[in-house]
Amino acid sequence: MNAISPSNTIRTGTSAENLRQAFLDNLVCALGRLPNYASAHDHYLALALTVRDHVVARAVQSFEQGVVKMMRRVAYLSAEFLPGPHLANHLLNLGIAEATREALGGIGIDLDRVLAEEEEPGLGNGGLGRLASCYLDSLATVEVQSIGYGIRYEFGIFDQVIRDGWQVEGTDKWLSGGNPWEIHRLGIAKQVKFGGHTETWTDDQGRTRVRWVPSIVIKGEAYDTPITGYGSGTCSLMRLWKSEAVESFDFEAFNHGDYDRAVEQKVDSENLSKVLYPNDELHRGKELRLKQQFFFTSCALQDMLRLVAMSGGKVAAFDESWAVQLNDTHPAIGVAELMRLLVDEHALEWDDAWAITQKTFSYTNHTLLPEALEKWPVELFGSVLPRHLEIIYGINHRFLDEVRTAFPDDDARLARLSLIDEHGARYVRMANLACVGSHKINGVAALHSELLKKTVLADFAALWPEKFDNVTNGVTPRRFVALANPGLAGLLERELGAGWPGDLSCLGRLEPLAADPGFRREWREVRLANKRRLAALIQERTGIVVTPDSLFDVQVKRIHEYKRQHLNLLHVLSLYLSIKRDPDAGVVPRTFIFGGKAAPGYFLAKRIIRLVTATGELVNQDPDVAGRLKVVFFPDFNVKNAQHIYPAADLSEQISLAGMEASGTGNMKMSLNGALTIGTLDGANVEIRDAVGAENFFLFGLTASEVSALKAGGYQPQTYYESDSLLRETIDFIASGALGGDPDLFRPVVDNLLHGDPYLLLADFRAYLDAQQRVGELWGDSDAWTSSSILNVARMGRFSSDRSIREYCERIWNVNAKPSQT
Ligand code: GLG
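# GLG complex -> structure
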């Protein structure tokens, strides 16, 4: 028999002719459709299957390499992933976009229409999930073997529609049109226990061991989605777990005629991976959420152990096979679960298991917000995970001894560091567990990492300063520039060569072109074309007609008070009132574009959305401001829509209160596409401003330390309200009932600002308006604006997620990444 080599594992090649034939084969044979009857969605599925062959062939070869070479692999544990549509990304990475366009064009099918058919997997809330997906992309690109482990939610983040100006949530049915990208790994299933109790027993070496006797066992089945890299044969795997009942029926109940009870367990088991919790940065101690976290983490660790065995590794050297990253505290239970697997199931001694655990895990913190910190009531925790509670007590006991040695007679410190919060009701603190179980702890931007050490993790930083590090976030230039902005990609390819998406340090070579009038003209043309496309989409989705030559002022991200979409609105309304007062007021034409989802239970965030739409209803109709102001709420902000919005942004609004936004990544995406930023010194804005130059960034607002000082001194929003007449006029206008047709509609927003203003909008209002004034002035000088835009792109190379991933590889995971070219 002939040996099967990688090259003959695929039926067809990648010429246009090959691709067309495979496409038609798939249409007819896999989907059962004759070409004449095929819908656009059939075309999408047939093309996806065609491309998938090549992707999967790469993925299995790449995986095999990892097994054979016994390399240390990276496991990225994340409760959320937001990959976005896959098809176009694979075409780019496989280098077959043009051949595919030709293949389809030859039979009268437009590739762009086919691409538009793809539904994205919305398996995350926002930045944290999208970061995980950028990192899988970059891991593949820098040729590191990795698996992103998570949950295959049947229903991801809700679909947002705007009805009568309000957010209405719809169920996300991302799987209903079929998912051609995943492979259900029938052979890979893990059992996960819940509840019950523990018992001790004596093994044949006379050692006392613990056995967990659960009250229920659930099965996790693996679904794999390969993630290709750019210019690399390596693929990452996104391995998501779906929960199933171990037995489909309770046959005993079934035989007794109790049909309801017979299916009950099946339904309960499947519920576990049913739906994503739609809260971003808000912890609610729901039992199902804890179960979800344990479910995917346990499946992942069991799977890693299986792979260790498969590559001939040793359990006692688990950390040599795997570097496991905790993406926030959602998978932090993994620290106790690995201990359980090593000690209870693989009979390792506690101290050996602990050494392995600490060398294996590292932890990324993504937020300083106190309401995001996960803690579980001890009782709830113990009822779901009785063995893990014992293990956590065991870890805590030894850990607190270590603290006592380092800081004798410091009970307050001991209480703060303890894995158990004992103030009043007792809680298990997941961030503390993550810190104790990890050898490295990092924040996601320089400022955030500093603040972490000073605030929420200060006691850990004092105990283990060497554990702390920073890795500033990055974003993939493949999806967010090459795919999202083909016009810009064309210019970059011409100036920098075809390989630019694999090495963003080359962007620096654009700098001299900022002074070249011809290049500036081309740059403007590309930007205008992007804005025209977005304008058409806005009209299609909202009915609002906007002018592409106006300044597109964009704030797209989750709706949250700390991100201060309402500060942006105060500016919009102040401009509106200025024009009403003085029709000749020097206001440059602007289109304000908002987008983002509010957590369904977040009252004020939903009111803020309504305030955007009510402002739009007023402003967009008013002939007095026609041609100067438009306000749009772009519904259902997700990765797919984002790819249309970022390249059309002139101004990127990054206006969170300093010290609140850990990093932000939308800020990077817009600047990389040529937007100028108006922003506070918060998160990665600080580093973006350093990179692009203060003169190419509109800075305003209090610094993080000024914020602390102001709050400590007793902040009084009323004093700002009283001393600034424009601010007063704007707030009074909102309070007057002129918006939305109901005088009480925005009372809660106004009251919140006047009596408390927790995110200091009033304190930053004047500085924000001044910065916006500077924006308007620079916009008036189109050459100067364009130069700044070019320089933004030229200097943003550092914010590629390839750079971030190389830093993780070097400083945290200790694995070799393909070096960057420069
Ligand atoms: C968090 C933070 C963002 C950060 C992102 C990725 O709020 O500032 O950019 O993680 O690290 N929940 C989030 O989106």
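# post-check
The two ends are 46 Å apart (CA to CA).
The chain has a mean pLDDT of 96.
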